[in-house]
Amino acid sequence: MAARRARHRRAQLGVAADIAITAQRKALAARLEAAGHEMGGERRLLRGRVSVQDVLEYARQHFGLTSVAPEQAAAVLRTRYELRGGHRDLDTDAYAVTVRSGVESGLESGVEGVGHLGQAGKAGAAGQAEGTGELAG
Q1: Rounded to two decimals, what is the model's pTM?
Q2: In the structure, what pLDDT confidence band is assigned to residue 35 with cuts at 50, 70 and 90?
Q3: Between 81 and which of 58, 86, 116, 136 could a Cys-Cys bridge form, CB atoms 3.0 to 4.6 Å apart?
Q4: Is the Cα torsion angle 8, 115, 126, 108 positive or negative in sign?
C-alpha cells in the first residue's frame, strides 16, 4: 500500500511539473508575441524559466500536496524537463537542488545554478558542488 501511495504521489508531482512547464511555455509564447518584430533575430534569445518552486506550488494547488520535499519535486522536474525537451526554450533550477542522499548537490552549499539538459545539467550541478562555480551545458 505504501508503494502504491508513493507511485501515486510521484505521478501527481509529474502532472504538476507538466503544468509548470506548460505554463512557462505559454508565458514565453506571450512574451515572444508581445516582442513581435521589434526584436528581429533576438527573439531566439528569449527563454523561460521553470523552477522547483513552481512545481511545489502547482502540486499544492491541484493536489493539496503540502509536504513535498523540494528534492523530490526537483527529481520529478528534471525527468519531465528532459522528456519534454525543456532545454530548447526553458531553464530550470532543478539540477541545483540537493538530494539528501548526496547524489547531487547545490542548495545545501548555497550554490544556485541553472540546468539545461540531461548529463550537461547534471555535470554543471556536480561542477558547482566541487566548487568550480561553472555550469556545463
Answers
A1: 0.69
A2: confident
A3: 86
A4: negative
